[in-house]
Design a protein that fits this description.
With 244 residues, the chain is an alpha/beta fold. The protein has ten helices and nine strands. Helix content is 48%, strand content 13%. The longest helix has 25 residues, at 125-149. Mean pLDDT is 83; it is low at 1-48.
Length: 244
């Protein structure tokens, strides 16, 4: 498949069928980290206003860099990770739930204690899922409200866990950003002043990139061998044509 072009979904034999179809197949009542989508009070019919585009990729893939290129083209981008951090500090109901679940140490002076919370969930899958079950529904609802305010032909939601959270069902198309694992680890360790082991642990918790990219409608190769701009421009033009 050529980077920057639309691709067909993979077959049952190409990737594990159970994994693939459990993510891709639409269901009338699906769950987002254990929380029923019906509880989110999100109206999927809002997609009729403009195209809602997802931009996803694993840690160190460079999806934020790609997002900045789309912004230069005048396309607004919702950064889910940044929004989640803001919401965890501003949403009083969510703050109360986090304190109830993880203890008063979760906040210091009314501000999220990220180091403490990270220590609670980083190596504990159940605790991580518990935190996601609290944070993701609120962030999804916030992104939907943000989408409603946009007036461009299409808008982008940048998020690492697009498929893992099930939110691709509210998007018209998803763009994936791909890079070799070795390069992703190098980028993330330098950016976050982290270790190879910690970055690899994050990669291991995310959906395998080969599966994730096959689930995407477009793929951008950010491997430092192919220029990003021509790939972005190609997708940009395709999406503009789809809005006509």
């Amino acid at each position: 498949m050529e980077p920057g072009t639309e691709q067909a979904c993979c077959s049952r034999e190409e990737i594990n069928a159970v994994t693939y179809h459990s993510i891709r197949a639409p269901r009338p009542d699906f769950f987002i980290f254990g929380v029923s989508a019906h509880l989110l009070d999100i109206d999927a019919s809002l997609n009729t206003i403009m195209l809602k585009i997802g931009l996803t990729g694993g840690i160190g893939s460079g999806k934020s860099t790609v997002a900045k290129v789309f912004e230069v083209l005048g396309i607004p981008v919702y950064y889910a990770d940044e929004a989640a951090k803001r919401i965890m500090n501003e949403n009083e109901a969510l703050k109360a739930q986090i304190i109830d679940a993880f203890g008063p140490e979760s906040y210091s002076g009314g501000t999220l204690n990220r180091a403490y919370l990270a220590s609670r969930v980083f190596t504990n899958k159940q605790q991580l899922e518990r935190l996601n079950a609290l944070v993701h529904p609120v962030t999804i609802a916030d992104s939907q409200q943000w989408m409603q305010r946009q007036t461009t032909p299409y808008a982008i939601k940048e998020a690492a866990l697009t498929f893992e959270s099930g939110t691709q069902r509210y998007l018209d198309y998803v763009i994936g950003v791909s890079a070799p694992v070795s390069l992703r680890i190098l980028r993330a360790t330098r950016r976050d002043n982290s270790t190879k082991e910690k970055v690899q642990a994050v990669i291991d918790r995310q959906l395998d990139e080969s599966i994730k990219m096959k689930l995407c409608d477009f793929v951008i190769a950010n491997n430092e061998q192919q220029a990003i701009l021509p790939q972005v421009m190609n997708i940009h033009q395709v999406l503009l044509e789809k809005t006509k």
